[in-house]
Amino acid sequence: MKTAAKPWIWLVPLGVLLLVVFGYPIVEIVRLSFTDSTMVSGEPYSYTGSAYRSVVTGPDFADTLRVTSAFVVFSVVFQLLLGLLIALLVDNAKRRGLRGAMITRTVVLTAWAIPGVVIGVLWQLLYQESTSGILNYLGSLLGFSGDSAFLSDPGNALVSVTIANVWRGTAFSMILMYAGLQTVQRDLLEAARLDGASPFQAFRAVTLPALLPLIAIDLVTITVETFNSFDMIMALTQGGPGTSTQVLALKVYDQIFTQLGLGRGAAMSIVLLLINAVMIAIYFRYHKRREVNP
Amino acid sequence: MTAGGSALGRRKLFTLAAAGALAGLAGCGTGSLPPRTFRWLAIPTESVQSPTKARAEYAQRVLSGYQRTSGWRVVPQITVTDIDQAMAKLLLQASQHRAPEVAAVDSYLFPRFARYANDLSKPMAEAGVRLGDWFPQFHPVMASTGQPRSLMFETDVRVLFCRKDLVDRPPASWDELLHAGRKAAAHGKQVLFAGARSEDSVDAVLWPFYWSQGGQLLTADGKPGFAHGKGRQAMVDALAFIRELITEEAAPQRVATIQSNDDINPDVVADRVSMFIGGSWQASQLQELVTDGDFAKDWTIGPIPSRSGQDHTCMAGGWTWASFAEDPEVAQESIRLLLDGYVADEGMARWCTVSGNLPPRSPVYRNSAYHGDAFTELYREHLARYARMRPLRKEYQQVSQAMQIALSSVTSLSAEPEAAVDAALAQIV
Amino acid sequence: MTGRRWQNAGLYLAMVVTVVVFAFPVLWVLSLSLRTSREIVATPPPLLPASPQWGNYTHVLETTGIGGYLLNSVIVVAGSVFGCLLLCVPAAYALSRLRFRGRATFSRGVLAAQLISPLVLVIPMYRLFVTLGLLNNYLGLILVYVAVTAPFQTWFLRNYFDSIPVELDEAALVDGCTRGRALRSVVLPAARPGIASAGIVVAVLSWSQFVVPFVLLDDSSMYPISVGVVNLQNQGGEITTQYLAAGSIIAVVPVVLVFVALQRYIVGALTAGSLKG
Q1: Please, what are the domains in chain A?
Q2: Beta pairing class for B273-279 and B299-302
Q3: In this structure, how many other beta carbons lie within 10 angstroms of the beta carbon of residue C106?
Q4: CA–CA min distance B164, chain A (Å)
Q5: Which one of C176, C214, C240 has the shortest CB-CB distance to B51?
Q6: Nearest Cβ partner of B266 from C82, C123, C239?
Q7: CATH 3.40.190.10 in chain B, residues?
Q8: Residue (of C30, A174, B357, C167) closest to B348 by Cα position
């Protein structure tokens, strides 16, 4: 491999943009997180660490973390699995020249293109618990009770919100997996088949290794993305009932946009950032191992 | 570069095009307003873009009438539907001196904005509008700094709507409400109220249930008034009664998903409701929406039931207009649009007739242009006797947020009232 | 081959199930968008409106300025996709092919930016953009969208380039091409599926941004569709679900059209790529 004379030319524009857009705001948010300032810029404020203390030692922090992790873990696992399955499905169907592959892909993508707040409102309509609710009505046709408490029961609410989120986000994993499938070397798959490998064995031996780097990226991205997402839940349940669907990002949002507490919101968002950073760090460890020992 | 001449030409063209596009984008929207022009920010439902035709037309009429007579140009702007977001953004704009010249501000939040808003004493005097005309509970909202800095142009009260054929007379006490509700529930008609995690929910049910027992939301030093003693007991009892409405099946558990008073309308139209706690503006909407029956004839209203059946309370909300213009001439000219169209007797009379909201100034009720609905007399009485504003202190937001969680964990039957209050108190710093 | 036919039948069945699950909510919205307000609240809910109320769409288009919002979105999204790829492709290529000091640090720095949620940053960003004159300005908005989406795309494209055999560009370099030319004439064509995927992702993420445009645009007529459509939500007592539904459909149609158009493109890129492979 030749060493390029000026590698930085390729990188500087991106680096500069990131610095310009994120640099000052991050410094400012870190500063604000140690204050009790509000959105009203004239109101006096003082420096204090109390926001962090109350965030971390607050009685509801453990609860929020529990809700957030359940939401993130299940969203991520199902988005990844479903995304991979649908990508395989579409890829296979296309290679066999079956009709409908493109429709399938487009339909899945469509769900993802709807803005989060609108998705929240729409799923609220689907989950309606009065007899005008379509899911309850269809459920009653299929022999269910017809008055399932999709959103008014705390346990169900978290499941309902997660399902809506999986529905929304699967497309992203699907695109990545689909793009990854195109890099699988067909001759290797062919060779595996000639060697008498079952489709599953061929998948494990040839396809999966080729997909692994993308799966790792996908995992990190959707994890971070899900940790940071709040718009759909805000519209669907506003974090309720009680705190049963209150994820950390929604708390940050509430703190800033509803309670106008800039300082506390900033502190919470730093905590959110740190959690994300831990996720990424775990990924780096994995990535490094792979680079050392491919 | 080994690229050929034509490729270079293409590159150059491409670069030029990109630069042109960037310049075009950068030019969009920035820059100051032309002279004799100002921006007018309204919430979507009350703007020229309102999905309700009559409101959109009213706003349009006010705007074009003003432009014609004054020679000034108005640029209408809208907020987003989510009030919290809209107000947070407006605060951010105001703090950077970029707020629209005139803007709608939610009444209970106005004191947070007062430092940025203009003193309106002079234009009010010129328009012949006196602070004393407004109902007294609105004076602290409008004039928290001494001088009037906002113009409250509409208000509302929350009441108990009852179906006459199912409920003999509006229940006054909690016991009567529970009893009447259970009786109607046996016929498949339920009691509804907003019980989700939202500002609407605490405003409609929890605050009046608590206030009517003598409770205060905030003490004089800004601490929650339900931290201990009688106040705590009153809050626990209010939540316990709400829980009882659900466990006794007068109200369904799905009230835990009803986020706003308006969300009850579909159920009323679908004939599933015996009684509901709703906003005064809903009657005129329901009059239109209910087609198999006459809402005004079939329904009646009463004050929100209290524990004792006396000392009723309810929450009054509403919106104000405020002036954020920095140029004195613009400030004086722009507020005239709203004084004429929404605040002075005739404007307020017409607007409140169109919007179904209540005039916050008493002379307007006598104005010939004001036509209320079947319940207006009663609303006005409620406004005078029972209505209260939310605390105007900045600590309120946190208390409200904590109690929204408490209320919705009780309506979803996931927490006992005592535990819910304790959790809320632990959350308030 | 009956085995193959069974497999095909299985694939068809799986596709049908997938389409039903993913399309149902959208189709339901479509159905809602064509109802009268009475049909919205009817029990049990009718699956289809008795007579489609196309007037709901005209009402939304005429009264809400949604057409303008749509156009705003198209401008900002196009700018973001273009800007993002312009910055990411070279960076990703350099990270994939060149070996230099600070490479790992740079790529980690970029990825760290991916952690940041713009949710909180928009508040100080507002003040920053006032100073820079970028507030209330599509260019400013595009810069933020690019900054938000670029870290992931750089990472993704870098991995994608990694999967393209190095021999391809080395052959070009041996032939006397510069790095830039090798990237453009050899690597980019082979990477078209990856770049198309990246483009789709940037487009969708920019299309659905909510908090950033809402805060960074002062002038509400400049709002993108993601902000504009939410204003059709039920408020002021009226039952406006049918309008919200119509607005949502209007908001989604352009994206679906782009998907369909891009699908064809991806298909073309794939066949071109496989000829070489």
Answers
A1: 8-292 (1.10.3720.10)
A2: unpaired
A3: 20
A4: 23
A5: C240
A6: C239
A7: 37-155+317-387, 157-315+392-427
A8: B357
CB atoms within 10 A of CB A219: 19
Would an 8 Å CB–CB cutoff place C181 in contact with chain B? Answer: yes
By percentage, how much of chain A surpasses pLDDT 90?
28
Separation CA A120–CA A238 (nearest Å)? 10
**C-alpha neighbours within 13 Å on the C-beta side of residue C115:** 20
Q: Are A120 and A235 in contact (CB under 8 A)?
A: yes
Helix boundaries (H) for C163-277: 166-174, 179-182, 188-190, 192-207, 211-216, 225-230, 241-276
Q: What is the pLDDT of residue B16?
A: 60
Minimal Cβ distance to A258: which of B401, B414, B429: B401
Long-range contacts of residues B93-99, Cβ cutoff 8 Å, at least 24 apart:
B93/C218, B94/B324, B95/A39, B95/A40, B95/A41, B95/A42, B96/A41, B96/C126, B96/C127, B96/C130, B97/B326, B98/C130, B98/C135, B98/C218, B99/B41, B99/B324
Closest CA to B341 of B376, B369, B363: B369
The chain C residue lying nearest A92, using CA atoms, is C11
Provide the ipTM: 0.85
Q: Is the pLDDT of residue A4 over 90?
A: no
- Give the H/E segment covering residue C3: helix C2-33
Residue predicted with more confidence, C210 or B410:
B410
Residue found under tokens 């496989």: C274
A33-50 pLDDT, tens digit per residue, is: 998 888 877 677 888 887
Confidence band for C149, pLDDT divided at 50, 70 and 90:
very high
In terms of Cα–Cα distance, which of B393, B82, C233, C251 is closest to A238? B82
- The mean pLDDT of C16-23, rounded to a whole number, is 92
Q: Nearest Cβ partner of B285 from C75, C221, C237?
A: C237
User: Longest C-alpha distance within chain B, in Å?
Assistant: 92
pLDDT of residue C1: 53
Domain covering B37-155+317-387: architecture: 3-Layer(aba) Sandwich (3.40)
Rounded-to-integer distance, Cα B346 and Cα A99, Å: 66
CATH domain B157-315+392-427 topology? D-Maltodextrin-Binding Protein; domain 2 (3.40.190)
Contact state of B409 with A257 under an 8 Å Cβ cutoff: no
Q: Using CB atoms and an 8 Å cut-off, which of residues 205-264 of chain C contact chain B?
A: 214-215, 217-222, 227, 230-240, 243
Q: List the 258-277 stretch of B: residues with Cβ below 8 A of A.
A: 259, 266-267, 270, 272
Residue of A nearest to C192 (CA): A179
Arithmetic mean of pLDDT over chain B: 90
pLDDT of residue C276: 37
